Amino acid sequence: MGRPQGVEVAKTRTRGPGSTYSRVVPGASGRVLVVDDNKVIRQLIKVNLELEGFEVVTANDGAECLDVVHRVRPDVITLDVVMPRLDGFGAAAQLRADPRTRDVPVAIVSACTQQEVEAGITAGVDAFLAKPFEPAELVRVVRRLVERNDRRDGRKGAPAGRGRG
Predict the structure, then answer these.
(1) What pLDDT, on a 0 to 100 scale, did the predictor assign at position 154?
(2) CB of 123 closer than 8 Å to CB of 101
């Protein structure tokens, strides 16, 4: 099965190894909702994105993601695949089914097997990043999704939270 145009699969390897979290970052590059049941991975993603100027909100699983997404109104969502209550594919499919979140870019951050990529494409995922990942590759994928979302919404350069109803 070929990848639809615009779907990105990044395969990198890294050298090293709660509750909903939100921190307001003045002049943030974009708001990212990071969803992963592993606290260490959530923290790793959060820190790397915040170091690059993103505002980051975290959720423990797909169900919590769906609970907070309308309050958070992220520019991008990263999802793990294997999580309790609701996995990443189920969360992505529900995000795509909701008119309020249908166009929010979604990146899967997981092992990214061929089966996961195919299931993610079916669920409407925009990008894939293989675990373990290189932090610079994470930032690159998220930045590209934020920029694509900004261009589509006509909000080029708008800070997080602006231009949304």
Answers:
(1) 67
(2) no
| pTM for this prediction | 0.77
Tell me: cis bond preceding 132? Omega within 30 of 0 counts: yes
Q: Which of 54, 56, 57 shows the shortest CA–CA distance to 20?
A: 57
What length is written for the chain? 165
With contact defined as beta carbons under 8 Å apart, do 53 and 46 qualify?
no
> What average pLDDT values come out for the chain (165 residues) when binned by 10 residues?
46 37 53 96 96 96 96 96 93 96 95 85 91 93 89 56 37
- Asked if 32 and 142 touch (Cβ cutoff 8 Å), the reply is yes
Three-state SS across the chain?
Answer: CCCCCCCEEECCCCCCCCCCEECCCCCCCCEEEEECCCHHHHHHHHHHHHHCCCEEEEECCHHHHHHHHHHHCCCEEEECCCCCCCCHHHHHHHHHHCCCCCCCCEEEEECCCHHHHHHHHHHCCCEEEECCCCHHHHHHHHHHHHHHHHHHHCCCCCCCCCCCC
